[in-house]
Amino acid sequence: MKKFKTIYILLCMGLLCTSCNDFLETKSPSVLSSETVFTTEAMTKSAIMGIYSTLISDNLYKGRIPCNWQGVSDIEFGRNESNSGEDGFPNYWCDIYESRCRWTDGFKLAELATTAIDGIRKSPLMETKADIMKAYLGEALVLRALAYFELVRYWGDVPFKEETSNSDLSNVYIGKVDRDIIYDGIISNLQEAIEYLPWMGNGEYTAERVTKGFAYGLLARVALFAGGYSVRDANEFSDANVEHLERIEELNGYYVGRRKDYLKYYDIAEKACATLIGNSDNPHQLDVDFGDIWKTVCHLDLNKYNENLFEVATGMSQNGDIGNLMGYSMGTNTKYTGGRGMGGNYSTSNAYYFYSFDPEDTRRDYSVYWGAYAHDNTNNIDRETIKGDPLNVCFNKWNFFWTTDEWRTMLKAATNRLGNGINWIIMRYSDVLLMYAEAANELYGPDYVDEIAGITPRQALEKVRERAFGTNSSKVKIKAVGKDDFFDAIVNERAWEFGGEAIRKMDLIRWGILDTKLDDMKRALCYMMDGTQNVTCFDKTYPVGSLPTMLYYTYYDEDSPSVISGEKAPNEFIDMSSDKINFYKELGTNPGGDGENAYQEVEWLSAKYQIDEKNPDDLGFLDGYVKVLKLGSGLMSTYDYSELYGTLKYGEYLRNRMATEKMGNGKCNYRHLFAIYNEDVYESKGLVTNSYGY
User: What is the pLDDT of residues 68-95, one digit of tens each?
Assistant: First the structure.
């Protein structure tokens, strides 16, 4: 007999505190909301703005989702390979005793939005000021959809309700709901919201407010996840309507599957994207310059092309952890930063991602950047250096030198982390184009012409590539012929377009290829360090010996202006032009020779990971291999790298070392991202139970 398990929803609304006890001691705000808050336009607007403020909660978009939880994919690394504490999240080692994985803020967002939805529907203003109130209703519907979308992606099957909480708690203690039902509810909410919302540019509706364009885009994103793969619990819910991913072994009732009617959801996504793309009122387009997207958002300006469909608004000096915790690395105690740095290593990238790019792709140096600005103790000067660690490469989309003068001034005097006010971009228009390409290709193939969109999937993808390479570049065209080849092209393109934007890991999950892509990355990085094997990065293969073992670089000459001040700043910033530094060619010797004209030197890739002949007993170089192989190691129940060890120069050393490391969760494959926090179990008096092998 199937045991029906229930779960307690941690409500947090308005003046309500987050704990269970506080909730039980507080009168239900639903009566007050319906009777007072939504009877005037001004109070309704204030209530809606209050929902937006929840988006920058700790466990939502202030820092957790963009930085801490972004995780390990094939192009993104978490802080380290640890399987404990918060560092375990990126590696799928989710700990029920780790309080920083809580879902409280997600349910708070959902409850606040639900209260507004209920209050607006009942408001007398729906008769007298219908257009204004319906727009507010649309915003609340989308924000609730967004809340449940994040909850179901991170925790799987969760409590789901579309009514405000009753004072007697009769609808608070409810069971978990099958994700397929949740997704259908979210989709229905978004479809309704589209009818009410204005376009961006209408009055106060900027990228910091939910608009019709974002509702279309979120509908497409949700639909693709609804039709995608995820880990499922057959112990709790029937799998009669779900097809299993045969490649992933079922263990203990947990399996990876997707709805049998998944094409229905691809159709929803295709139509949503096509309708947005083909609408004459659509205000969104691609920014002509990929770099401008990031320079603009870092400077706290809105994109003039409306490429960003929705940004979570933050406040300078108050919040905004994105650039602080990841991005271009700025050291402390430099002439620019004072005692606080910027960038950090909460989420970084790697050499595998860097070498997956075509050198002519303009997105590469924004997405992945080897430079870091710090104090050079050897030369007693503040300047850029090349970080020679292939396992820790900056995301350059968030860069100190693009921030505002006001914030940089405050940073120099700051003693604690200072909010930079940089908005988190949840969706860009390039995502709409690529989602359209993916959905339409799955349904009809790469050269199908949607009458509403007016373009083929191939043309949509190539629009994105045109910005990356230039309109006249021969590299814009995609040679893929069939559905499968074109899908592979989409998988790659989405990686190059969205690195560091908390999209890749989730994409790989819904495609059911997270494990294979992680393995591809691990193999490539091990081969880079080993130096005896060809290295394959996406669609590119580098023959043995083609990648440098020593990198040489120099600085802009003394006549070059400072990046930040316009003043002359010799020997401060690395000259990244192709004739000064070459990441793809072994030069052999220092191009500047010895003496004052010599270039800076840094050991590169395989040169860093070899036995020191003078100290052959020092096996510290194996740490790099261990870090790579342990990344994401909580994803699968067991791991077997025997075949890989056999191809490596020091494979036997590595085999012995890895035998001492914790690998695999031992319970299920593709375990869900987060466990239910232990305190939630305790406070609910046993009504909460977790699943997914925890």
Answer: 888 899 999 987 788 888 888 888 888 8
Which two structure tokens, joined as six digits, stand for 558? 């003394």
**Separation of alpha carbons 579 and 559, rounded Å:** 18
What are the angstrom distances between the C-alpha of 6 and each of 65, 158, 679, 690, 691?
Answer: 26, 10, 16, 10, 12
Full 3-state SS string of 534-545: CEEECCEEECCC
Residues 338-362 pLDDT 10s: 888 899 888 999 999 999 999 999 9
3-state SS record for 11-58? CCCCCCCCCHHHHHCCCCCHHHHHHCHHHCHHHHHHHHHHHHHHCCCH
pLDDT at 683: 65
The pLDDT value given to residue 559: 67
Q: Which residues are CB-neighbours of 643 under 8 A, at least 6 positions away?
A: none
**CB neighbour list of residue 656: distance below 8 Å, 6 or more residues apart:** none
Position with higher pLDDT, 605 vs 417:
605
* DSSP code for 294: H
Token code pair at residue 225: 């996840």
Q: What is the pLDDT of residue 1?
A: 30
Q: Name the token pair of 665.
A: 């969760």
Element (H, E) at 214: helix 212-226
pLDDT at 10: 33
Q: How high is the pLDDT of residue 563?
A: 61
All residues at 6 or more sequence positions from 79 whose CB lies less than 8 Å from its CB, including other chains: 87, 90, 345, 346, 347
Cα–Cα distance measured from residue 421 to residue 403, given in angstroms and rounded to the nearest whole number: 9
| Burial of residue 378, with CB atoms counted within 10 A of its CB: 0-12 exposed, 13-18 middle, 19 or more buried | exposed
Query: Between the CA of residue 143 and those of 11, 510, 688, what are the distances in Å?
Result: 16, 22, 25
The answer for residues whose C-beta is within 8 angstroms of residue 680's C-beta and 6 or more apart is: 8, 10, 102, 103, 688
What ranges in 445-572 are assigned the alpha helix state H? 457-469, 483-498, 504-511, 514-530
How far, in Å, CA of 244 to CA of 18, rounded? 38
The phi and psi torsions of 416 (rounded to 5 degrees) equal -125, 170
The ranges assigned to domains in the chain are 314-422
**Which residues, at least 6 apart from 168, have a Cβ–Cβ distance to it below 8 Å?**
none
Residue 675 pLDDT grade (very low, low, confident, very high; cuts 50, 70, 90): confident
24 or 296, which is more confident? 296
Q: Is the CB of residue 457 less than 8 Å from the CB of residue 441?
A: yes
Q: Is the pLDDT of residue 14 over 70?
A: no
Share of the chain above pLDDT 70, in %: 91
Average pLDDT of the chain is: 89
Q: By CB neighbour count within 10 A (0-12 exposed, 13-18 middle, 19+ buried), where does 620 fall?
A: exposed
Which pLDDT does position 21 carry in this prediction? Answer: 36
Calpha distance 609→628 (Å, rounded): 13
